Every structure is written in C-alpha cells, then in structure tokens.
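Pilot study result, target chain (230 residues):
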Amino acid sequence: MMEAIAGSDVPMERLMTGTGAASLDDAATITRQALDLNFAAALVMPPFFYRDAGDDGVMRFFDELFSRVSPPYNSIILYNFPQMSGITFHAGLTDRLMSAFPRTIVGVKDSSNDRALQAELLQRHPQLAIFPGSEHYLAEALAAGAAGCISGSVALWPELAQSVYLRRFRDDSELLAAKRTALAGLPFIPTVRTVIASQRDDDSWRKPMPPLIELTASESNELRRRLGSI
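Predicted structure:
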C-alpha cells in the first residue's frame, strides 16, 4: 500500500503513515520502508504487548528502533492510545524521549484526548505538534496550541472539519462536535463504516475485518436516530 501511494501523484510531503507493531522487527522494517518512500512522518505506537516493561522498557524499544531505522530529522510522531496499547506517553516519559531523541520526534497524536496532558506537553515542549485524536473539540484544541487533529471519523465530514480548522466559526464547531458526539458509545470503526456505507449506498462497507463485528440492527437504528436529529 505504501509503495502504491509513493508511486502516485499524492504529495508525499503531506502524508504520514502508521508503522507501530507489537514486534520490534516489524516496527523497524515498516518504519524504515515508510521513510525510504519519503513519507513525511511515521506514527509509532509504544510496544504494546509487554505492558509491564515500564518506562525503561519503552525507552529501550525506541532506542533500538531508531538505531535500526536512523529516522530523518522531525520524522517520528508518537501515538498515545493507552485504551488500546495499555501504555501512556505521559509527560515524564515524553520528557525522556525528547531528551534522548531531540531531533527525531516532531509530534504526538493523543487518542486519549486528555486535554490536561496535551496542555502539559505543549508547556514543556512547545515545538511539538500535538494532534488530539478527536475532532470533537478541534477549535478549542487549536486555540490551545494544537496543530490539528488525527481522527478516523473526520473521513465522514472532511469539508466541515476543514472549515473548523481554517475558520473556527462557532456554528461549524458546534455542528462538528454534535456529529462526533453522535458516534459516542458505539463501536468506533464499525460505526464509521456504517455511516460510509450509508453515504455511498454500498453495504459492503458495513463489514469490518475480524476481530471487529458489524453493528447490530439496534445499534444501527440508534446511530441513524442520533445523526438524523442533528
């Protein structure tokens, strides 16, 4: 997939790709390939299988990863998603990583959506590009110094999200927040796929890859009710 994108007319200087993996070898191989293909950045999760490794283990992982990959200046974005990985890039750990690799890490995607953590990271490292993992509070995040957001649900309303990013009109911000709130409490990826299926009139989008399962009829009806009320 990365090779196909790199061989297209898409501007590589505007693209990042996710290269985190449970295996150090896999993470190194995919990250090296992404950067060799001139992706602007690689989004890397912490090692998420051995959750008892602690901060020292995470540091060792990134030290080994970067020694194998030799990433260019400002080419790595940390992916903070403790709900899935079981590991948090808390402020202290981020301090250690920034100190050890000051010319490598350019940003953090924070899918914990912890605004206090985002503010603390910006205070300690104002050069970091902070990307919340939800567009729900995009305007407020931008006002606080965030660089934008990285969110799967933006695919459902890209023009609206772009308008909020560029103009920050209150009505647009409230509408974007309401749309994102409508997805809350439902399985995220199957929910996004269900909306895409409706937008494209293509039911094949409803079926996600295992181990995820498609929304139940009651969940689909609840989603339709919520979006229809906005």
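One observation from the pilot: DSSP finds eleven helices and five strands in the chain. A full batch analysis is planned for the follow-on phase.
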